[in-house]
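Example for tutorial group B:
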């Protein structure tokens, strides 16, 4: 009892769940990103790279990579008590792109991971989301030994609109990845607001 009145518990918070895609080229760090931030053991669909796939799996710049995602990565992170993100990592190779339409169904937005040593590998993902009006941000995964470039230089190289955020990150670092995911959510909300205003005018 407090001041003659019963203390009642707070009403239960109705959680909001959002779907975020993690896309980008082969070997850019999508599986690492999902795994570093997921609060559950991430679902992974990786297979060993084989000689048969060598002609189509370009490992230039990622010679130590010996596995590849053949379906998707899946993880979950709770950003707030009332906000949970479900993360879906897309396969990077062209031969698996037929799965992207299924994975993007119901997605709030996406992060396109980029490696400055192979920046052209993320062009396809950028083009995909632009064509479908799915809000996305660029996460420049800062690999050890790779040259660092200002975000505006990356923006120009990718020919991005000024409204698309470009953020530096380390896919291995949980705090860095959380900042990227918060950026995706914020950008998607701003994107939705702009679209509603455009339709209303």
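The residue assignment follows.
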């Amino acid at each position: 009892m407090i001041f003659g009145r019963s203390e009642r518990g707070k009403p239960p918070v109705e959680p909001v769940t959002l779907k975020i895609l993690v896309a980008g080229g082969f070997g850019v760090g999508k599986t690492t990103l999902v795994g570093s931030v997921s609060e559950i053991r991430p679902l992974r669909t990786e297979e060993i790279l084989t000689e048969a796939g060598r002609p189509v799996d370009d490992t230039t710049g990622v010679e130590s990579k010996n596995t590849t995602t053949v379906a998707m990565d899946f993880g979950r992170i709770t950003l707030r008590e009332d906000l949970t993100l479900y993360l879906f990592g897309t396969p990077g190779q062209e031969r698996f792109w037929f799965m992207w339409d299924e994975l993007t169904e119901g997605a709030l937005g996406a992060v396109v991971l980029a490696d400055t040593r192979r920046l052209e590998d993320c062009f396809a993902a950028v083009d995909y989301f632009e064509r479908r009006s799915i809000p996305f941000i660029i996460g420049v995964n800062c690999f050890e030994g790779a040259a660092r470039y200002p975000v505006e230089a990356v923006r120009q190289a990718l020919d991005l609109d000024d409204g698309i955020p470009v953020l530096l990150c380390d896919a291995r670092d949980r705090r860095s990845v959380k900042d990227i995911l918060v950026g995706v959510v914020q950008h998607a909300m701003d994107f939705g607001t702009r679209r509603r205003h455009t339709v209303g005018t």
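The chain has a mean pLDDT of 84. Compare this with the pattern of hydrophobic and polar residues in the output above.
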